[in-house]
Amino acid sequence: MDLQSIKNRFGIIGNSPALNYALQVATQVSNTDLTVLISGESGVGKEAFSHIIHSLSARKHNPFIAVNCGAIPEGTIDSELFGHEKGSFTGAVDSRKGYFETVNGGTIFLDEIGEMPLGTQARLLRVLESGEFIRVGSSKVMKTDVRVIAATNKDLLQLVQQAKFREDLYYRLNTVPIRVPSLRDRKEDIFLLFRKFAVDFAERYKTAPVQLDEE
Known about the structure:
Blueprint: H1 3-10, H2 17-30, E1 36-39, H3 46-55, E2 64-68, H4 74-82, H5 99-102, E3 107-111, H6 118-130, E4 132-134, E5 141-143, E6 147-152, H7 156-161, H8 167-173, E7 176-179, H9 190-205
Parallel strand pairs: 1-6, 1-7, 2-3, 3-6
Antiparallel strand pairs: 4-5
């Protein structure tokens, strides 16, 4: 699939070299099972890249789930990701499957991976290394086949130096790095974006689109 049809399909506007390079890497890596780390500021469209990678992969007919690691309380993230057994903690009235079980065969997008607690990082590393995990409160080892795509708006290497992120997990996640440029790094795309928004507003409000003169 060429870059333009990918942009059309996923609503990506822009033609800057940095954006095109990021898209190229995403399409090339999509058909592998390699772990991908997408970095970039908030709002640059990192989740869109995770959808591109999943949709162009052999797993495209299997489940995809996006998990925001920064939005799940520290006490429940292990249970969300790996499941738990009945009675394993206060409020665990039933056993529950985690995402690594329910998304087996598919793709998990872990957004804001820099917010993941260190204990959960150790569990994630085990999944990436061996495909094995254990539900909270259980001793039974379970297998899963899930592709992990992670994203961060933080400098993970800096977090590694501050002992807030595991170095081994960083290198395991960063198998294929993709950097999504911010708008200030692709100023040449502003005109394309302006035109797109102007046309969208004109259609919505049934008016003539605003146009810019050369100046």
